[in-house]
Specification:
This protein is 48% helix and 9% strand. It has 699 residues and is an alpha/beta fold. Its main location: other.
């Protein structure tokens, strides 16, 4: 209870545990050897102590307080170890303080760091009256505030750790140095200490490691079904094997090491393999885990289901082939009730059966059409009395259907009457316009076989850009300004079939039109494109201005072709046509005769064909007619054929260029089909196949 202490050059210490270990702690000496005492903290342990009677302890505290009171110095009663405090002890201590005048009590816990600063702050306020009076907070309320403060500081510290520590390989010394300047680190260490800060760091690192392991596990498990599909795709191989034998079978597979790795140490997640991100092979011991076992069982179940579905598809196809209710053209809705049973619905979706049914129907229909075509060939005499325009009347069609009506091959297409009628019309068209395109033998047509045989026999000495084009295709540029090109293109398309085919001399040709009305120097208006090689150009005019546009465009096109060294485009066949002058009359002083004369002059200059309305026998004021279009296209076709001539030579013949008549004399070996093909097919190159009078196909 002394208020003046003297201990010159003595070390300050906090507790006797430091005696003998002075070098391990910060060393401070007593100031000036003298120390005045300004106040006292009277500490009372309120925990349950061994062999200690609290009532006797409180008597000792009471006597001690009486000694301190004589000094006239401020005193604060501090209840310690309140985190383990006994409620009665705390109550008795407060009762003791109430009996004294102005004696304040502070409940503390040094272990939890609760109200320790408050105890000293309360004493300082009593010593220095100028300071504000400290508010005394009960232990449990202070503990709550302390817990909230620690929780907030912990959240901020954990955020700091998660921002800095991204890898589970990080070490505490390095990370703690990085975090020391951060207030989040400082606040938490002040409240909880360095060891707890390190503990949270280690928990975070462990969490990162587990997350990394889990990611690797998911990668391996995602790869495992693919490995099983590659190594053991056959159900018969593994269906009755135990797990151990199945693993032995996997190890024996040639591609085992492509999918798996056998580690010397296990488990896999405790080895360095978990950090080898470039090696995605599955650790073999992973197969022992429950998740891998489930995937293996799922693989078995998948193979069993696939086998069952394959059996169902096969059974369904067999059902289709044997069912008398499935006929060509019968819709699925009508056939379903006759061919489906409950087992089919259990294993496959109805869409799968519909797909199989659709393919089966296609086979039935193709076979029925083929049989019907043979029927038409057998009854070829029915079609001899038709007109040459190949358009039978309704009465004639009725006669044909009546004659064929009793035939089973006719009845087979009962649900496809439109297609059956189309086949009849197609057959009639073939009878009067026999070509390889209309031939019912399709790819087996003799004409097609002849072309294939000739292409493989003859040597081509001259190549032309147009020679590789399909001879049955015509690419036509239509040149004209102010809508002339577009209008004529639409008129020509109106004369074509639905699939842009045009008939010339009884033969179908694919017609591609490219109307141009702008600057031909621009790519969008170029005569030639990567997908369009023109065979000719139809130049339209109806005025002096439109004629000038045609001339300028042709000259520009030829200049561009010369720059590209494209001889074909420079020599493109041209036809100049005077077409309908909108509104008629002599607009602008231009007469029909003057436009014709100007067109003839330009045609002579461009060395091209000139067509005028009078040449076609039509009056001025009408557009180019179908006859003129046919003349133009036929002329282009003839020019194209000339470019496609193949010049070849064989021993014993003269070159075709000297005008000699080339003749081939061959002997047909009747008993040798191969020789017959080699001899007969070249001879019959220009002879199309026709139906024989007695039925069947003949050459």
């Amino acid at each position: 209870a002394a208020t003046k202490l003297a201990s010159a050059e003595k070390l300050m210490y906090f507790c006797t545990d430091q005696l003998g270990l002075e070098q391990d702690f910060e060393q401070k000496q007593m100031p000036d050897g003298k120390l005045p005492v300004d106040g006292f903290l009277l500490c009372v342990d309120v925990s349950r102590g061994m062999n200690r009677n609290f009532d006797e302890q409180l008597k000792f505290v009471s006597n001690l307080y009486n000694q301190l009171a004589k000094t006239k110095k401020p005193v604060v009663v501090v209840l310690t170890k309140c985190d383990e405090g006994v409620e009665r002890y705390i109550r008795d201590a407060h009762a003791f303080a109430l009996g004294k005048k102005n004696l304040q009590v502070v409940e503390t816990s040094a272990r939890s760091n609760v109200n320790v600063d408050l105890a000293f702050g309360t004493l300082v306020q009593l010593v220095d009256k100028s300071r504000g009076k400290a508010k005394i907070i009960p232990y449990f309320e202070a503990l709550k505030q302390q817990s909230q403060q620690i929780a907030a500081a912990k959240d901020k510290y954990e955020w700091l750790v998660s921002r800095i520590v991204k890898s589970h390989h990080e070490a505490w010394p390095n990370v703690s140095r990085k975090m020391q300047p951060a207030p989040e680190y400082q606040d938490y260490v002040y409240l909880e200490g360095t060891q707890k800060a390190k503990k949270l760091f280690l928990q975070h690192v462990q969490r990162l490691k587990q997350e990394h392991i889990e990611r690797r596990r998911k990668v391996y498990l995602a790869l495992l079904p693919q490995a099983l599909d590659a190594l053991v795709p056959d159900l018969d191989e593994i269906d009755h094997l135990s797990r151990a034998k199945a693993e032995k079978l996997l190890e024996a597979k040639p591609d085992f090491l492509k999918w798996f790795v056998v580690l010397e140490e296990t488990p896999w997640d405790a080895t360095g393999h978990v950090d080898d991100v470039d090696n995605e092979r599955i650790p073999f011991d992973l197969l022992e885990t429950p998740a891998a076992e489930q995937l293996y069982e799922a693989h078995l179940e998948k193979l069993r289901n696939e086998r069952k579905r394959a059996e169902m598809r096969r059974a369904f196809r067999e059902n289709l082939e044997t069912s008398p209710f499935v006929t060509p053209g019968k819709p699925w809705e009508e056939a379903r009730s006759f061919i489906m049973n409950e087992d089919f619905y259990l294993w496959l979706e109805e869409s799968v059966y519909m797909d199989i049914y659709g393919k089966h129907q296609k086979q039935l229909i193709d076979k029925a059409k083929e049989d019907f075509q043979e029927l038409l060939l057998e009854y070829s005499e029915l079609f001899y009395e038709l007109e040459l325009d190949a358009k039978p009347s309704k009465e004639k069609m009725g006669v044909i259907q009546e004659v064929l009506g009793e035939e089973q091959r006719f009845k087979a297409l009962q649900k496809l009457q439109a297609e059956r009628d189309a086949l009849i019309l197609k057959h009639i068209h073939f009878v009067y316009h026999p070509t390889k395109e209309t031939c019912p033998s399709c790819a087996a047509c003799v004409d097609a076989r002849v072309e294939q045989l000739l292409a493989s026999r003859f040597i081509r000495h001259h190549r032309n850009p147009l020679a590789d084009s399909n001879v049955d295709r015509i690419n036509l540029v239509i040149l004209g300004k102010d809508g002339l090109a577009r209008e004529l293109a639409n008129e020509i398309r109106a004369l074509c079939t639905n699939d842009d085919k045009y008939v010339i001399e009884g033969k179908m040709y694919e017609l591609a039109l490219r109307p141009i009305e702008g600057n031909v120097r621009l790519p969008v208006n170029a005569f030639q494109t990567p997908t369009f090689q023109p065979h000719g150009c139809l130049c339209l005019y109806n005025s002096k201005e439109s004629l000038s546009y045609v001339v300028e465009s042709i000259e520009k096109s030829r200049e561009s072709a010369a720059g590209r060294r494209d001889g074909h485009s420079a020599q493109l066949p041209l036809t100049l046509v005077l077409v309908n002058k909108r509104g008629g009359g002599d607009a602008g002083g231009e007469t029909l005769q003057s436009l014709i004369q100007q067109g003839q002059q330009i045609a002579s200059k461009l060395q091209c064909v000139f067509l005028d309305p009078a040449s076609a026998g039509i009056g001025y004021g009408r557009n180019i007619n179908e006859k003129q279009i046919g003349q133009v296209l036929k002329g282009l076709l003839d020019a194209k054929r000339n470019l496609n001539l193949v010049v070849g030579s064989t021993p014993g013949t003269k070159d075709a260029s000297d005008g000699a008549d080339l003749r081939v004399v061959m002997c047909l070996m009747c008993g040798d089909p191969a020789s017959a093909d080699e001899v007969l097919l070249p001879i019959l190159q220009a002879q199309p196949c026709r139906p024989a009078p007695g039925g069947g196909a003949a050459v």
